[in-house]
């Protein structure tokens, strides 16, 4: 199994750190190169209000077929150089792997049809739901839940998926509690200790399946983690500075997928992907203003600065005035990609990147930490850490330092409440010992088994410290 | 007349030590235990609820206040006559069958608890039968259903239909919430109400139980 160590940044020159270009582009069998100079649209879609069960599966499949026809037809009409379609499987289609496989076959079938008839190049990302939670979960790495995840991955890969991805959830319940309480040590334990260890086991399996099925292991995201913080901050339930720090800490966890052999493009909803790109050179998918159909954010433009694929997060198949929503969204994505690609071909990519960054970064710390300059500075600090725990701790500390400096220099607006929390979170961070085993003991002492059951993770303190 | 402002302020500040000091002062002054709870502790928590609603407090601050209030209640509890308690009603809450989203539902549960309701949180992926059983076992007055997926919203309808089939629909108020949910959907499936966020859910529960 891969165990790559990234101790230096893939990028040292800010001028090379740009959308559409990755140091390690992903070359696909149909000729599309992700991160090779062209930003591609990546459309993500979901079903309208309907149940998924054995009886409704034929209707489910025809919904997918209709959506992909609409998308491919529009992409062909607009002469897109290529598209990526992401299907985030819904829970029943992972609990029943065959249903996920059937969805893959239908979707890929339509994509192949448009390639054969019209030469439309497309790639399919299948994102399996991480169903390893709930009352009936017996273990994270064996038993029915694990088997369903693994079998769905394998089946989807064999049915024609080009990329395999997941939004994994190891340590998520600890993290939920940490978000509710703005508890930085608990968030760090969830991400830098429990989450990273879970990622190792999970991604070793995904990479193995990908190798055996000639599929590309693309990447993971902190959707269940930093995106929860992002949504909570957006509703003013928690401070935005917590969400910003949490996002950067999540980068270390997401990076584990690449350490274990994932090669990208990283998944759209992982805004921390920019750190992944800085450290590993892996191409990334990002989402911003075009994801407003799924959730609001404060990073609508700045998220595009380093994107190699440009996504809409998810949209349900409902009728809008302009047509069915997934078709409407591929159109928006294609136009966004066109303008970025034309800017690049005119030699204006850096200017475009900086305009995108400048238009957002001042108004929210979550936007500020996506600025390419800031990303490179913090990433340089992160790679100094020797362990995932150390790196996650450094990520938090470097982000706090950056946010404070940005406020003092007038580069970032923070109100008094946000500043108060910056102090609180810095104090919390200082309370965390440097020794991982000592920290783990400290965290387990106050842990309740409903939030984190070490036995289900085969977790022990000694191996956590290694 | 005991001055409750210090106690209420300590709850608002989430200062557990100060809450306990003030409660002990009230007990020493022989203030009626129920009055200590209602005017001092819940009085403070009501202010917290209002401030949260207008974005003047964050969730962690609300939770600190709730913990401080509960520490105060623990001191008063032994002094209450049998049967006297402050539970405003029991809410059974959970994410419906097929849906694994947790945190929005948990947030609503916490805010309800902070507001004096007893909450039984069943977790995620809960079948109609499990909801029914919990209502029976806990004498639930409100059923709060959460869903975040367009493909699980209809499980809310199945759950309400099960309440009807079990002959308990008139005895329980059903509220629903989650990203794809709307008042229109609530009306369609025969729920008693929809809440767009945690603060609105607390108001809705209070209103439904008062009626």
From TrEMBL, chain A:
GO biological process: methylation
Name assigned to this protein: Methanol:corrinoid methyltransferase
Protein keywords: Methyltransferase, Transferase
Organism: Desulfosporosinus hippei DSM 8344
Domain of life where this protein originates: Bacteria
InterPro entries, sorted: MeOH-cob_MeTrfase_bsu
GO molecular function: methyltransferase activity
UniProtKB/TrEMBL annotation, chain B:
Keywords, in A-Z order: Cobalt, Metal-binding, Methyltransferase, Transferase
Keyword Translocase attributed: no
InterPro entries: Cbl-bd_cap, Cobalamin-bd, Cobalamin-bd_sf, Met_Synthase/Corrinoid, Meth_synthase_dom
Protein origin, superkingdom: Bacteria
MF GO annotations: cobalamin binding; metal ion binding; methionine synthase activity
SMART domains in the cross-refs: B12-binding_2
SUPFAM superfamilies for this protein: Cobalamin (vitamin B12)-binding domain (SSF52242), Methionine synthase domain (SSF47644)
Short name of any one Pfam family annotated for the protein: B12-binding_2
Residue span(s) of domain B12-binding: 88-211
Signal peptide stretch: none
UniProt entry tagged with the keyword Methyltransferase: yes
Protein name: 5-methyltetrahydrofolate--homocysteine methyltransferase
């Amino acid at each position: 199994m891969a165990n790559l160590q990234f101790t230096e940044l893939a990028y040292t020159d800010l001028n090379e750190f740009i959308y559409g270009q990755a140091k390690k582009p992903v070359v696909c069998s149909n000729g599309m190169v992700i991160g090779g100079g062209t930003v591609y649209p990546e459309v993500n879609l979901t079903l309208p209000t309907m149940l998924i069960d054995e009886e409704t599966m034929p209707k489910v499949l025809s919904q997918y077929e209709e959506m992909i026809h609409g998308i491919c037809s529009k992409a062909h009409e607009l002469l897109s150089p290529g598209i990526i379609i992401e299907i985030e499987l819904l829970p029943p289609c992972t609990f029943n792997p065959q249903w996920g496989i059937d969805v893959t076959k239908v979707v890929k079938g339509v994509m192949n049809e448009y390639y054969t008839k019209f030469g439309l190049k497309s790639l399919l990302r299948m994102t399996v739901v991480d169903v390893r939670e709930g009352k009936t979960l017996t273990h994270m790495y064996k038993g029915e839940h694990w088997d369903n995840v693994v079998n769905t991955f394998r089946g989807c890969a064999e049915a024609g998926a080009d990329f395999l991805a997941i939004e994994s959830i190891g340590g998520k319940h600890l993290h939920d509690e940490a978000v509710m309480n703005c508890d930085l040590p608990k968030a760090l334990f969830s991400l830098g200790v429990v989450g990273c260890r879970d990622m190792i086991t999970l991604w070793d399996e995904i990479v193995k399946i990908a190798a055996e099925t000639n599929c590309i292991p693309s990447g993971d995201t902190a959707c269940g983690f930093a995106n929860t913080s992002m949504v909570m901050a957006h509703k003013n339930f928690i401070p935005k500075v917590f969400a910003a720090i949490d996002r950067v800490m999540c980068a270390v966890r997401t990076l584990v997928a690449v350490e274990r052999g994932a090669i990208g493009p990283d998944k759209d909803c992982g805004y921390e992907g920019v750190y992944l790109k800085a450290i590993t050179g892996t191409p990334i998918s990002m989402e911003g203003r075009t994801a407003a159909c799924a959730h609001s954010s404060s990073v609508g433009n700045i998220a595009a600065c380093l994107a190699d694929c440009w996504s809409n997060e998810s949209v349900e198949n409902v009728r809008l005035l302009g047509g069915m929503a997934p078709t409407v969204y591929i159109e928006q994505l294609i136009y966004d990609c066109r303008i970025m690609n034309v800017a690049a071909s005119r030699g204006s990519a850096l200017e475009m990147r900086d305009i995108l960054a400048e238009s957002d970064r001042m108004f929210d710390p979550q936007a500020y930490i996506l600025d390419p300059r800031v990303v490179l500075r913090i990433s340089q600090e992160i790679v100094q850490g020797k362990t995932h725990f150390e790196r996650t701790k450094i990520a938090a500390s470097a982000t706090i330092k950056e946010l404070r400096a940005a406020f003092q220099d007038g580069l970032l607006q923070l109100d008094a409440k946000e500043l108060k929390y910056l102090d609180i979170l810095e104090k919390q961070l200082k309370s965390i010992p440097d020794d991982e085993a000592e920290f783990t003991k400290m965290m387990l002492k106050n842990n309740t088994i409903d939030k984190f059951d070490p036995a289900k993770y085969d977790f022990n303190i000694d191996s956590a410290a290694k | 007349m005991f001055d409750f402002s210090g106690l209420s302020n300590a709850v608002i500040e989430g200062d557990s030590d100060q809450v306990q000091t003030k409660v002990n002062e009230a007990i020493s002054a022989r203030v009626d235990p129920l009055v200590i709870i209602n005017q001092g502790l819940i009085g403070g928590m009501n202010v917290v609820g209002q401030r949260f609603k207008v974005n003047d407090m964050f969730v962690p601050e609300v939770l600190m206040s709730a913990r401080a209030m509960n520490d105060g209640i623990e001191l008063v509890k032994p002094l209450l006559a049998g049967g006297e308690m402050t539970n405003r009603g029991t809410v059974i809450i959970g994410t419906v069958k097929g849906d694994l989203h947790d945190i929005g539902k948990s947030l609503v549960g916490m805010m309800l608890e902070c507001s004096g309701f007893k909450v039984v949180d069943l977790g995620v992926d809960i079948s109609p039968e499990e909801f029914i059983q919990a209502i029976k076992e806990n004498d639930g007055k409100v059923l709060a259903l959460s869903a975040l997926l367009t493909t699980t919203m209809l499980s809310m309808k199945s759950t309400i239909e099960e309440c009807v089939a079990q002959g308990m629909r008139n005895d329980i108020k059903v509220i629903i919430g989650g990203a794809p949910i709307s008042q229109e959907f609530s009306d369609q499936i025969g729920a008693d109400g929809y809440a767009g966020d945690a603060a609105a859910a607390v108001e809705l529960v209070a209103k439904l139980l008062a009626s």
